[in-house]
């Protein structure tokens, strides 16, 4: 006696993974998300492996999670996957205070972000003759 299963939000050929509350500004995280958007997953993983950005390791783990979700939960073929969406959302901003000159105070903002990666299975391209 449970409630009925919720209808799936994504199409049958898509899977997603979400990274929440990561301590980086959305602007910096979006630079890395933009780097993998629209690429095949093998290329995107290689780009993230050799990226010099600090956050690239966590983005790579999230992409690997999306690939595993596609393979294990939705029976999609890993070789035909592309990163169809990679978008960043804003989360909370922690505010800290630092003393400044003449008894004043300066605000330091420490932003958090969310990252959502959606992978889609595309049909293999026919070999051109």
UniProtKB/TrEMBL annotation:
Matches recorded under InterPro entries: Ribosomal_uL22, Ribosomal_uL22_bac/chlpt-type, Ribosomal_uL22_bac/org-type, Ribosomal_uL22_CS, Ribosomal_uL22_sf
**Gene Ontology, cellular component aspect:** cytosolic large ribosomal subunit
Matching entries from PROSITE patterns are given as: RIBOSOMAL_L22
Kindly list the GO molecular function terms attached to this UniProt entry: rRNA binding; structural constituent of ribosome
Question: Which keywords does the record carry?
Answer: Ribonucleoprotein, Ribosomal protein, RNA-binding, rRNA-binding
- Subunit organization: Part of the 50S ribosomal subunit.
Tell me the protein family, please: Belongs to the universal ribosomal protein uL22 family.
* Name of the protein described by the UniProt record: Large ribosomal subunit protein uL22
């Amino acid at each position: 006696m449970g409630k009925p299963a919720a209808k799936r939000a994504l199409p049958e050929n898509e899977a997603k993974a979400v990274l929440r509350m990561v301590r980086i500004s959305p602007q910096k995280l979006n630079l890395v998300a933009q780097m993998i958007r629209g690429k095949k997953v093998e290329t995107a993983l290689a780009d993230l492996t050799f990226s010099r950005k600090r956050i690239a390791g966590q983005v790579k783990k999230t992409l690997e999670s999306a690939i595993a979700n596609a393979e294990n939960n939705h029976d999609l073929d890993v070789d035909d996957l592309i990163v169809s969406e990679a978008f960043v959302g804003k989360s909370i901003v922690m505010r800290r205070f630092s003393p400044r000159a003449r008894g004043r105070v300066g605000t330091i903002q420490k932003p958090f972000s969310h990252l959502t990666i959606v992978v889609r299975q595309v049909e293999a391209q026919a070999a051109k003759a």
